[in-house]
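step: validate -> pass
step: tokenize input -> pass
step: predict -> running
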Amino acid sequence: MDTVINLGAVKNGTTTLPAIELDKFIILISAERSARGREPRGKIVLRGQSPSTRPMPPDVLEFSVGGMVPPDMAEHHEHDSAAWPMPPIPHGLTMLPSEMALRPEVTPFLPVSDAPLPNADSNEVLRAKDGDIIDLDAELVRRTIDGQTFTMYSYNGQYPGPLIEVSRGSEIMVRFTNYLEDSTSIHWHGIRLENAFDGVEGVSDAFTYKIRFPDAGIFWYHPHIREDIQQGLGLYGNILVREPGAKIAANREQFLMLQDLLVGDPDLIPWGQESPTHALMGRFGNVFLVNGEPGYRLSVRRGEVVRFYLTNVSNARTLNLSFPGVRMKVVATDAGPFEHEAWVESVVIAPAERYVVHVRFDKPGTVPLVNKVIGLDHLFGRFFPEVDTLGVVTVGRTPVRHDLGASFDVLGRDTATTRAMRSYRKFVDKAPDQTLVLTLQTHGLPFVTERLMQLDSIYFAPVEWAGTMPMMNWASTGRQVRWVLKDPVTGRENMDIDWQFRRGDPVKIRLVNERRAFHGMQHPIHLHGQHFLVLAVNGVPNTDLAWKDTVLVPAGGVVDILLDTRNPGDWMLHCHIAEHLSAGMMMHFTVN
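step: predict -> pass
step: emit ->
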């Protein structure tokens, strides 16, 4: 071993050792006569290794030269090469010849139109009062992104769709008209509305939704019919439900809908028509969009406090967002404020989650909005940094007129939320009422995919931050991959599960993301029509409660949630990685 680092002596009980700044390492604990030695000489008591230090199978060299590509595989996919354009490969990754021969065994789909289409507009704000009626139309538009023009979807010709702003307690009607060839729907994500207007059933022509807003918060709307395609092509928009009379401790507000789009040359990489592609990991994009555009720009005055409403509308990508060099505090999430604000260096936000942060820009210059994560090269067990700039905030020299620096420096506490949470804390130590295991079944995958995934199965990152298995992931379809929600008590899976709850009785649900699955993957779990509290993650109680409707369950993780069952009806629970949902990962429950 060319690098030996003495981490110190280990004693009975718990010993805290320093961090190890190496991607690959071996831990040795040896019985030494003295702590002064530079290298271990005594008997080895324990040996461990880093997750990325993995034993390689003896036939790994066959993979490296593409020796596992049967001749009939290349012939089988040769006729598909023109129909399926090759997806972009992330920089720095090595793809084996056997992987490069893979193609999805479904028909590629992209929207087309013979008639001229309007260019998509920027989204507007629809401020609706109690009793108002607004119109939303799903229709085709042209979108130009980084010089490439695509046919995409829109609400009211806008990308994203209009921001709908209402007050808590109001009720509105939405007249929806579908001008797309395929049926679609609008799901009002996070809104505890009447069951009949949840937006799960498809709409071919027109439908009128009645929506009440019992909760203040930042919500959004999107389709629930092949949302891997329709949401990915631009059908999404924000909803802001304001608390009447509430004051915002910020100089301005910004609404950021965050998406990654998979762009090829000269068009978007198609979707699977009969079944979703990217069914293993979900569809990761290579172009980051903020409110439908690359390169977000904002100009502020020195000292301004900006309230950012962050919504992740990506199909699969979990983001780790930050504004390096300035202070940021998180104040609220999906359906309301946290009990107390917290200083954070970054915000991890899974698909469908929302977070509200306050950021103060106190020095002139430029501040980037970045997504900073660690990618994993599954073939070689190598970690590598990925830093993408989503936008830039330009801070001027002129000071802000109304300086909120004094209030920004104090971490606020929401006493009303704390009082409301008191009756729920007793459930932290209670046994779960229901348990749900998150796992995976596959059949008919290409041999090279199965073999490489078996190699990879020694280690899964808790969060798959980037699409670092692009070819195998792209070629896996919903016909070969079945993501599973399993009730361990009854053995029922997905839509065969039919949980029955009594209205008003809080229900504790334990979400167990099975570590031994064929490919461990994080899952953002969303419940329709209800909100819930995250009580604990991996057995550690949550001390800062807030109402949510979507929670990220890391690979190998256990998350306890407490479901508030005050909204009766038949509802869904599902993974919000769009390809996992389309590959079966949903179930049914009833609040009687």
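step: describe -> The CA atoms of residues 147 and 188 lie 33 Å apart.
step: cleanup -> pass
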